[in-house]
Amino acid sequence: MGLVITLILLGILLLFAELTVIPGFxxxxxxxxxxxxxxxVLAFTKFGxxxxxxxxxxxxxxxxILLFFTLRSKxxxxxxxxxxxxxxxxxxxxxxxxSVGMEGISLTRLNPAGNGRFGDTTVEVRSSEGLIQAKTPIxxxxxxGLSIFVVPVENN
Length: 156
Known about the structure:
By secondary structure, the protein is of the alpha+beta class. It has helices at residues 2-20, 27-72, 74-79; strands spanning 103-106, 113-118, 121-127, 137-144, 147-152. The protein is rod-shaped and about 95 Å long. The protein starts with a helix and ends with a strand.
């Protein structure tokens, strides 16, 4: 019976070490599962089904209690995110003051994407009509999500 208890306790110890200390699921987790399962299987084979079920339910209860206290410990509070992130990564073109019909100039070659300037605002734009050379007047034809599509302005 000592070997069964040792295997189960060693398995539980390795599983909780894997859960709290060692990142990922590696050798300690596999050995922990093997020790835990091996102890239970050994109890069933050596001592019969009655003792096997007692060992199984005792091991599961012990694991549940340890998991409960592990999750309540301050270890989890140290590694969890407490701050809410309310800001967006990129403002929308409308928030930058870019709208359909605005005219500007391409700062880089648009093949199909590059930079364009509209007033004082520099943004990434995409050509909707192929290659547009740098320093070419451009016009916003449509906005799709965060993408601004432009065409070259024709001289009339």
